[in-house]
Amino acid sequence: MERVNQPFPEEVVRRWGRTANERRGRRGVGARYGRPWSRRASAAALAVALLALAAVPSTTALRSRAKVVADHSAVRVPSTSTSDRVRFEVTTGGAATAATTTTAAPAPPAPATSEAVIAPPPASFDAPPAPPAAPPTLLHSAASAGGGVWAVVIGIDDYPGRGSDLRASVYDANTVDYTLAAYGVPADRRLVLRNTQATAAVIADSLRWLVARAGPDAAAVFFYAGHVRKIGRGAEAIVAADGKLVTDRTVADLLRPLRSRAWIVMASCYGGGFTEVLGPGRILTGAAGPNSLAYENATYANSYLVEYVFERAMMNGHAPESAERAFDWAHAALRRDHPNRVPVSHDWLEGELRLGTPPRPAPSSSPPPPSSPPPSSPPTTSAPPPEDDDDGDCLLSLGSIANCDD
After folding, report:
1. What's the farthest any 2 CA atoms get from each other in the chain?
2. Strand order in 245-247's β-sheet?
3. For burial by CB atoms within 10 Å, which of 63, 168, 207, 216 has the most?
4. Cβ 175 vs Cβ 310: under 8 Å
5. Which of 344, 335, 338, 401 is nearest to 372 (CA)?
């Protein structure tokens, strides 16, 4: 039986270029079919072409699905592993399939700063205050004015609700208390109020206790660590543990009968604004200026003021001789170590305020004082500093003490 060769359609062959005969310049039917080896080559080429045509739709679909997945259908969800992530892809059929891919663990985040601002609490707390704890029995002991050192030390971390608690105020109070003890101040002359003991009424009573006991030859210390609220232009108020306020004028009025020299220390925001308490023979030291916020540092467990003035200068022996020398050393050291956390002081006292016999320095890893410290220039005035007349809101900027207007 004679084999009849049927030619491939011209248009099919031409999809893949000119025919072999055309490339050789041949024309006509005989030339179109070519010799036997040419026919076999043509058949093989045609088979490859058909296979390629058959593969085109699936390739196109695959590329189309890949593009859809890449552009629209890839969703990442967290997994329990830091190195695994599950990606959900939508296939062409609409079913969801999960593919687990392993990626490198992300770089660990930068360590959270150990510093926290002692930001003023809101105008109203989100919960009622906790029941007050009984104050120390020393508060109601018989009054007996005398010399030496008398101290009221207050630290409040626990405020009504949960959003305004602090973390270093009680530790500040404890540090000041044991510093005074190390200087030889007896326990019956150190009235310490912590957390819910320090209601507004008890704070006022503690000031009366101090006035009644510190005679003309004595040295009185009033220390407060906790929240302070700005209540007006040039007006501040202590926020007691029960959420009530003890204004700067109330503090000044209660201290007015005090006959002794006095050191008032405010480890709080706006502490330098309590200038109403100033008078001859008194020093006001604040962790921040009258329009600035204060900070506490978990690395130290204290506020900057207490860490540098009481812990380092006084307890560690860098400048233990007097309150003024301790402040000057702390001022210079903070300018070196934390230049945006420098405290303020108003000194109306002639000479120096000595609190007793300095203790033997305890072993410490605290850095030594600067070999050539920058000059310390705490404001020493003969009249209360003028109040800032600027109006505005509190502005907290990263890396610096926030300046807050009324």
Report:
1. 141
2. 228-232, 235-239, 245-247
3. 168
4. yes
5. 335
State residue 248 phi and psi, 5-degree precision: -60, -35
The pair of three-digit structure tokens given for residue 380, joined into one six-digit string: 């020493």
Residues 217, 145: contact at Cβ < 8 Å?
no
- Confirm if 271 and 287 have CB atoms less than 8 A apart: yes
Asked if 330 and 305 touch (Cβ cutoff 8 Å), the reply is yes
Nearest to 199 by CA among 296, 122, 104, 132: 132
Q: Is 86 helix (H, G, I), strand (E, B) or coil?
A: strand
At residue 228, the 3 state secondary structure works out as: strand
Q: What is the dihedral of CA 392, 396, 397, 402, to 10 degrees?
A: 80
The amino acid at residue 130 is: A
The whole model's pTM is what? 0.65
End-to-end CA distance of the chain: 113
Separation in Å, CA 228 to CA 12, 185, 209, 272: 90, 28, 22, 11
CA dihedral 275, 268, 338, 165 (to 10 degrees): -170
Determine the 3-state secondary structure of 271 from DSSP. helix
Query: What whole-number distance in Å separates Cα of residue 98 and Cα of residue 91?
Result: 11
The secondary structure of 291-330 as a DSSP string is: TB--EEETTTTEEHHHIIIIIIIIISSSS-S-HHHHHHHH
User: 385-391 — which CB contacts under 8 Å span 24+ positions?
Assistant: 385/275, 385/290, 385/346, 387/233, 387/234, 387/290, 388/233, 388/234, 388/290, 388/291, 389/233, 391/233
Q: How far apart are CA 222 and CA 286, in angstroms?
A: 12
Digit-coded pLDDT (tens) for 154-184: 999 999 998 899 999 999 999 999 999 999 9
Beta strands 115-117 and 295-297 are: antiparallel
What's the chain's length in residues?
406
Cα–Cα distance for residue pair 310/168, rounded to 1 Å: 14
Of the candidates 180, 175, 181, the one whose C-alpha atom is nearest the C-alpha of residue 311 is 175
